[in-house]
Structure formats: C-alpha cells, structure tokens
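Q: I'm writing a short explainer about Anhydro-N-acetylmuramic acid kinase for a general audience and would like to include a description of its predicted shape. Could you first generate the structure from this sequence?
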Amino acid sequence: MRVLGLISGTSHDGIDAAVVDFTANDAPSASGVALRGTVLASTSVPYAAELRARLIAALPPAQTTLAEVAELDTLIGQAFAEVAADISAEVGGVDAICSHGQTVYHWVDGAHALGTLQIGQPAWIAERVGAPVVSDIRIRDITAGGHGAPLVSFLDELLLRTHAGVSAALNLGGISNMTVVRPDGLVAYDIGPANALVDAVIVEHGLNPLGYDDDARIARTGHVDDALLAALLADPYYALTPPKSTGKEHFHLGYVHEHLAAQGREIPVEDVVRTLTELTVQTVARDVATAGIEFLAVSGGGCRNPLILDGLRAALPGTRVVLADELGAPADSKEAILLALIGWCTMHGVSAIVPGGTGAREPRILGTITPGAGPLVMPQPVSGIDSLTLAEAAAS
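A: Of course. Here's the predicted structure. Afterward I'll give you a sentence or two in plain language.
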C-alpha cells in the first residue's frame, strides 16, 4: 500500500509530504507483521504568504471569528490538496492519504488535554486526488485519556526498540518533543518551545522573509541575556511531570512580550533571538541529561540550526547526538512519514499510539476516513506491527 502523509507543524510555515510504499511480510508473528517502508518521494511546500499571514493572525491568543476559521479550513484544505495531487502524480498514484492538517488550538487544562483542533478540510484532498483520506487523528487519543501528543512516539518506539540502553528521538519543530525508550518501556512528551518563540520574534520584526532564523544568522549576532533566560527557565510548565503537552496557546509572541516587559529594560532584538535559542538548548539538554539518554536522534527544522545542534552536543558530552536519518527516517520528512504510517495503520485496523507515549489508558485506532472517488474498500486487518524498517528509494 502506497500511503501519502501530509502535515503542517507548529511552525505554521508550510506543508510537509512524504509517500511511503509499505509492504508486510507474508508470515506475521503473534505480535503482528514485519513492515517495511520505502520512502518514494518527499517534499516541503511553503504556505502562500497571504495564507500564512491569515493563519498566524487567527491563532491564540488573538481573537478570531467562526467565519475566518471556516475560510481557513477551506483554504488550507485546498493547499494540502494541491500538494497531495502533485506528489501523488510524481510517484504514479497513491492508495491512501493521511492528513494531519494544521493545528490551530490544543486545549490543555493542567495535566489533562481536553480537546484539539486541526483544520484543512480533508474532503478537498479526497476530491482532488481520488484516494481515501485519514484525518483528525489526535482526538481519539485524547478521548482515551491521552494528550494527543506526541503521536510520533509510535514511530520512535518502532525505530529505537533495537537500541541498547536508553535512547531517545527528539523533534525540534515549533515545540520540542521527545520520546525516551528504555528496556522497560517508554515515555514521551512536549519539552517546550523549539522554534516557536524565535519564529514569532523574527516575523514581528521582519528580520527574515523566510520567517525563521536561517542558519542561526540572527542569533549569531546577539548574546544570551542571563536575566531574561533565567526568567524564561522558571516557567512552571517545565516542572510538570510527563506525560504533558503544550503549544502556541502557551508559548506565543505575547508570552515573549510579557517576559520582556517584566525585565523593565530594552533588550536588543538580536539578544532576544539568541536567548530564546539558548532556551531551547537548555530545556532539551536538561531533560536529556536527567533521563540518562545515551543515543539521541534529532529531527525537525531546529536540527538545521547549528547553534541548537552544536549547543546540545556541547552540553551532552556523554550522549551520541545524530540526525534521525541514521534511523532510516530523514530528519526533514520524519513527521510526514509518521503520518503515512498512521494512515497505513488506520486502514489496516492497527492502533497507532503507545500509551506510555501520550498518556492514553490503552491503544486506539486513530482518525476519521473520508472516502475517495470510489467505494471505500478496506484491506484485511492485521494484529499489529512487530517491526518496522524504513529506507529511501534508490535514485533513478
């Protein structure tokens, strides 16, 4: 089964897509099939500038209207549909699609997630491509007591389970999240902001038309403001015990403004960017060191920021820090590959959550299915996945 995974993450900068060709062994074990995935194609397509501006303007803590949410739901769905059509045509068609859509609100009250909203109407994708679309994948985990995040813990566990000792996978998107795999189980959770706060400052001041600190060029010109950093590190969220989740409902531009106002002095914007970058390094390094992690595989846009990656390596001399490519999941498309895997699982009746990863009481099959051009035909269900091997297709 060829499955297309689509996602726009908490950086709200565009759509990541990956087509994975999954094959399962003919003789499954009692615990499930041995699954192999070959990444046939992947891409990242920025949102149109006007659409991204509208999206950012509608996000919390800003006020918006149901009319704007409805229009964004359609416009983002159409944008996803165009990306899906292009990459599907590139590989000669797909059997199914799994679209995460765009998170616009993640409702967390204390230690519990109560709801989540992703927009990007999947019917536009199904209509454009003609394949069934799995969507709305987070809410079922929340109804089972989980946080709906980080769902990537399911993929991480499959890729890391053969590593000896304590290993982990770190994703540095808008929010940093980590899956820690031990011989006796796993835990996964959102650590805090990765790129979210830096991106917000970059956009506010028009420092880079890309909307992020490309190659840490801006942060390199600044200095860490120790007093500001100390205040940021004192946020009570970091003291919560996993499982836990967060998002731009908490870590947003207004949050930065509040901390700057509390300092009662002018701080150069370059120093603010440098300090927020260091915040990511310190919060991640602290949790990695506390967990005794020996092997750390990093993915997400933040892994391309040399100040973050070099900072983590310097702060964690006892940890081998590598890109997720070493696990067979390219660092830039790992989350889209996860979506493809979730789509395969939903179509085959397989749960795609690990309770230790999200806090759910027990596993659940995720998502809602929108039929494609013809009748919805489901494959024969399987009991689960015993092992997963990922590889990239050989270049022609």
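A: For your explainer, you could say: The two ends are 21 Å apart (CA to CA).
Q: Perfect, that's easy to follow.
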